[in-house]
């Protein structure tokens, strides 16, 4: 099980709307696949055991901790990361609201929160504060105490 | 002579809420944090760590790892330069290079679980980890001690055999006691003898971690000229350089530290852990080496803040006047000396005026990671003891605990427990704000069936620090200004710095483009810590901007062919003292500089002795399920004297974040130690930090009492808010269930036990 092993997995996947053809070591996480093979470092490493949410991405519309998914598992799937949220027309409303509400301090958890919050709003256009707090409970933030994050998500709904 | 400033109110930029300059990069994933660093030819480093909390290292066999394809370097303690035992001030705590070096890589003895014993550099992280598993280490396991009581027993295993402890100035050997300090004022014994009410209690706190989401990281190169470059997440590039150079035994000018974006620190990213090791691996492999720490190691080997045993005794007269206080506090230092007993002594009695006081503090070694600063290091511990004891004294005497806090509040001229006299402080203004705030004037409300509710309050205090900061300015032809400053930006400080400059120059916050400089692009700047950044680096930015005005007056003088002394500057415009009609604003002048002498630049540097003390009070409402002991914080308000809030949103954020860290400390967080010295809960699953679901909205009240020591009245705000929560929640739990808890965490299990 070394990187010198000849057996890599052939993966064709769509990341932020763009198709990628990759040879992924079978043991490599989706997180490392994004960060090391593709160079998308917006998705962050916090714990590598699925407990902090900093590496949250969406796979076929479902949010996952990319440290707990193998790169080989996203063959044929649609992966979306924080880098795919803004468009040439401008920031996603959640990104704009995070800026206006000062919903980040250090910012390391921000990509994960944004992807997770988008996962909520894509399916539930107007969640209550309780629903937002419940949905985001898989993402840890140590700086803000969450208040301004919750306000930002509420602002993005409006 | 310390400069003082009159309060102002007519600000144009200060007090507004512009979008932070680095915000766009941080919401789009473009911002480059330490872990995102890439260089051509980069390889990965990993540590081999001791599985034992205390063990002699008999032998290390690295041959199998070295023989692997793709492994470029393997090092052990033998590769570490022998750093001398020399104490250096890092701004928030000291560092001794010998201990700091030993903390990064064990010599002949592992002193805590996870203590590095070797390091490996290989083509990628997976291969490096595989090679690490092939390093064979033979240990002789020793008994370990993980609390202060056991560590001071006569038969305790000695952690550092060559430690010479300092017991009130006397040398002590063969001990785990690194230091014992005392501060005593007035007639303590006489005051207790004449006190109408006295109380004595013991409080205990478990060690907790800063809990930053970004793990430690470092990328290093070491070139043929022996120049070392480091890219890392650090709270201070210059103090990191001091440590790296000291541990590697090279001149500071050989080391260039580039501070990357940083994913939280709270004090824990002041010490270096990986940087010197990455540099040695880079030298040996002749390749750039990157290291990222795994989360288990973050818990087991970095941070944390001391666990504490505290015995406190208070005495008051019949009229409710606090007359005397004594305390004995034992703090865990971890495996090297340096618990925060000094700051604890400064903070413990600070919110109160007490004529007779004594504090004894002990710095005690245990087989745990060496402690690091954590947001007001030492203060939350003693606040838990003091603020709980104050409530207990009031309960015993039948007094209202808020009125007692008002009647005994410290003010200008009050003497702190370590002897320092307060200048202008805002303790009384904070208490006035409590009386007026909505939370204090709202009823607790009825608990649902099967639950009870309680409310608690507590004071918090941090002294704040000033120290050294530097800033450079350069004018662009389009009327904007480049700002390069030395303070790591952990929570929006770049924007506060830019606002200082913009206010002086009469331009917008976004007309100033702030950059955090590396150690070769700006003057020495101390850590982002001690609540000093907006105060001290902001002050340096203000100075730089004023110096720039002086430079520009000379250019205006050339333009109008008058003397620089005859040029005025007000509200962003230069004018002639002689001819009122002659005027040019900053932006217009910027476009003409090429014809008036070329680039206009300036610098500002400060070394500030005092900073102005910070006080706050928190109000916590808790609801407890009688069947399970589970608690919910149902309302929470943080009130604090913040001086002048430069960017109120980020000041509120400091209060909210600090309060929530304190709530976690109170209710859930602890280093759960096994008998063999291993931490049983070294993951974010088992080390339970608050989530969004656990909390209500944290309400804030910014009490603005301008600090006379800063041109805009800024007072440090970051650390006070972690001081009150543990005691406020302890007092709320007592109010709810009628039983007091004396140790943290006050989790469901301990509440249920108290309900029995």
Automatic annotation (TrEMBL), chain A:
InterPro entries referenced in this protein's UniProt entry, alphabetically: 2Fe-2S-bd (IPR002888), 2Fe-2S-bd_dom_sf (IPR036884), 2Fe-2S_ferredoxin-like_sf (IPR036010), 2Fe-2S_ferredoxin-type (IPR001041), 2Fe2S_fd_BS (IPR006058), Beta-grasp_dom_sf (IPR012675), Diverse_Oxidoreductases (IPR051452)
Domain 2Fe-2S ferredoxin-type: 14-67
Keyword Signal: no
Entry keywords, A to Z: 2Fe-2S, Iron, Iron-sulfur, Metal-binding, Oxidoreductase
One GO molecular-function entry: metal ion binding
Transmembrane segments: none
Cited CDD domains: fer2 (cd00207)
Name used for this protein in its record: 2Fe-2S iron-sulfur cluster binding domain-containing protein
Organism: Candidatus Lucifugimonas marina
Upper lineage: Bacteria, Bacillati, Chloroflexota, Dehalococcoidia, SAR202 cluster
TrEMBL record, chain B:
Record key words, sorted: Molybdenum, Oxidoreductase
InterPro entries assigned to the protein according to its UniProt record, in alphabetical order: Ald_Oxase/Xan_DH_a/b (IPR000674), Ald_Oxase/Xan_DH_a/b_sf (IPR036856), Ald_Oxase/xanthine_DH-like (IPR016208), AldOxase/xan_DH_MoCoBD1 (IPR008274), AldOxase/xan_DH_MoCoBD2 (IPR046867), AldOxase/xan_DH_Mopterin-bd_sf (IPR037165)
Gene3D superfamilies assigned: Aldehyde oxidase/xanthine dehydrogenase, a/b hammerhead, Aldehyde oxidase/xanthine dehydrogenase, molybdopterin binding domain
Domain of life per record: Bacteria
Domain Aldehyde oxidase/xanthine dehydrogenase a/b hammerhead residues, every copy: 28-143
Protein's name according to its UniProt entry: Molybdopterin-dependent oxidoreductase
Lineage of the species this protein comes from: Bacteria, Bacillati, Chloroflexota, Dehalococcoidia, SAR202 cluster
GO molecular function terms noted in the UniProt entry: iron ion binding; oxidoreductase activity
Pfam families: Ald_Xan_dh_C, MoCoBD_1, MoCoBD_2
């Amino acid at each position: 099980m070394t990187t010198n092993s000849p057996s890599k997995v052939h993966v064709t996947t769509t990341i932020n709307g763009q198709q990628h053809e990759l040879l992924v070591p079978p043991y490599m996480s989706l997180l490392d696949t994004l960060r090391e093979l593709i160079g998308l470092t917006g998705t962050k490493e916090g714990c590598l055991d699925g407990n902090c949410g900093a590496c949250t991405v969406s796979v076929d519309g479902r949010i996952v901790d990319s440290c707990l998914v193998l790169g080989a598992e996203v063959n044929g799937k649609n992966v979306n990361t924080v880098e795919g949220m803004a468009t040439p027309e401008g920031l996603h409303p959640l990104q704009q609201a995070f800026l206006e509400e000062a919903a980040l301090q250090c910012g390391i958890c921000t990509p994960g929160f944004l992807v997770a919050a988008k996962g909520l709003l894509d399916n539930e256009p107007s969640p209550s504060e309780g629903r937002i707090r419940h949905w985001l409970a898989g993402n840890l933030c140590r700086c803000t105490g969450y208040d301004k994050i919750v306000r930002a998500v509420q602002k993005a709904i409006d | 002579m310390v400069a003082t400033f009159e309060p102002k109110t007519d600000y144009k930029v200060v007090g507004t809420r512009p979008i932070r300059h680095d915000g766009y990069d941080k919401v789009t994933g473009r911002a480059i944090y330490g872990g995102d660093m890439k260089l051509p030819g980069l390889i990965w480093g990993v540590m081999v760590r001791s599985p034992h909390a205390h063990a002699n290292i008999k032998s290390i066999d690295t041959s199998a790892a070295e023989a692997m394809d793709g492994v470029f370097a393997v090092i052990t303690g033998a590769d570490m330069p022998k750093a001398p035992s020399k104490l250096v001030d890092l701004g928030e705590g000291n560092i001794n290079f010998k201990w700091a070096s030993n903390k990064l890589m064990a010599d002949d003895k592992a002193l805590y679980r996870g203590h590095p014993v070797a390091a490996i550099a290989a083509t990628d992280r997976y291969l490096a980890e595989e090679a690490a598993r092939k390093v064979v280490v033979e240990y002789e396991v020793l008994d370990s001690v993980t609390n202060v009581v056991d560590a001071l027993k006569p038969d305790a295993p000695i952690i550092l055999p060559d430690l010479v402890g300092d017991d009130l100035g006397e040398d002590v050997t063969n001990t785990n006691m690194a230091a014992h300090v005392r501060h005593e004022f007035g007639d303590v014994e006489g005051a207790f003898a004449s006190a109408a009410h006295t109380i004595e209690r013991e409080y205990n706190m478990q060690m907790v971690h800063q809990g930053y989401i970004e793990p430690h990281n470092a990328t290093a190169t070491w070139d043929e000229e022996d120049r070392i470059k480091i890219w890392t997440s650090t709270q201070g590039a210059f103090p990191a350089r001091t440590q790296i150079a000291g541990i590697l035994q090279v001149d500071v000018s050989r080391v260039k530290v580039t501070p990357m974006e940083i994913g939280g620190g709270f004090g824990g990213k002041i010490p270096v852990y990986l940087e010197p090791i990455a540099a040695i691996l880079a030298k040996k492999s002749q390749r750039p080496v990157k290291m990222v720490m795994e989360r288990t190691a973050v818990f087991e080997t970095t941070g944390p803040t001391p666990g504490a045993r505290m015995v406190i005794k208070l005495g008051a007269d019949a009229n409710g006047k606090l007359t005397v206080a004594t305390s004995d506090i034992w703090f865990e230092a971890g495996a090297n000396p340096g618990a925060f007993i000094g700051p604890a002594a400064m903070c413990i009695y600070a919110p109160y005026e007490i004529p007779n006081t004594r504090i004894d503090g002990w710095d005690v070694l245990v087989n745990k990671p060496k402690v690091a600063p954590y947001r007001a290091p030492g203060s939350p511990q003693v606040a838990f003891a003091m603020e709980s004891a104050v409530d207990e004294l009031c309960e015993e005497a039948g007094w209202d605990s808020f009125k007692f806090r008002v009647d005994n509040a410290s003010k200008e001229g009050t003497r702190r427990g370590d002897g320092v006299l307060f200048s202008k402080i805002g303790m009384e203004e904070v208490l006035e704000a409590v009386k007026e705030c909505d939370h204090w004037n709202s009823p607790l409300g009825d608990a649902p069936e099967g639950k009870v509710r309680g409310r608690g309050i507590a004071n918090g205090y941090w002294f704040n620090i000033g120290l050294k900061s530097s800033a450079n300015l350069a004018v662009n032809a389009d009327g904007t200004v480049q700002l390069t400053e030395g303070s790591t930006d952990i929570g929006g400080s770049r924007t506060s710095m830019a606002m200082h400059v913009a206010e002086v120059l009469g331009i917008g916050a976004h007309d100033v483009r702030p950059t955090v400089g590396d150690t070769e692009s700006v003057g020495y700047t101390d850590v982002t810590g001690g609540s000093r950044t907006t105060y001290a680096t902001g002050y340096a930015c203000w100075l730089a901007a004023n110096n720039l005005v002086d430079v520009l007056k000379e250019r205006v003088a050339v333009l109008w062919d008058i003397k620089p002394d005859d040029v005025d500057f007000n509200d962003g415009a230069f004018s002639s003292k002689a001819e009122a009609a002659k005027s040019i604003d900053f932006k217009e002048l910027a476009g003409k500089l090429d014809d008036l002498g070329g680039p206009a630049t300036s610098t500002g540097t400060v070394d500030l002795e005092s900073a102005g003390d910070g006080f706050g009070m928190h109000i916590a409402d808790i609801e407890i399920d009688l069947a399970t002991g589970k608690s919910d914080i149902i309302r929470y308000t943080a009130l604090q004297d913040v001086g002048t809030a430069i960017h109120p949103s980020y000041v509120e954020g400091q209060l909210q974040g600090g309060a929530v860290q304190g709530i976690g400390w109170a209710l859930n967080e602890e280093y759960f130690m096994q008998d063999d010295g291993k931490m049983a809960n070294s993951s974010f699953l088992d080390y339970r930090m608050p989530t969004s679901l656990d909390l209500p909205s944290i309400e804030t009240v910014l009490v603005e009492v301008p600090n006379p020591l800063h041109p805009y009245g800024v007072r440090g705000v970051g650390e006070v808010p972690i001081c009150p929560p543990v005691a406020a929640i302890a007092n709320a739990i007592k109010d709810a269930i009628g039983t007091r808890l004396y140790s943290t965490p006050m989790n469901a299990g301990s509440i249920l036990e108290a309900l029995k």
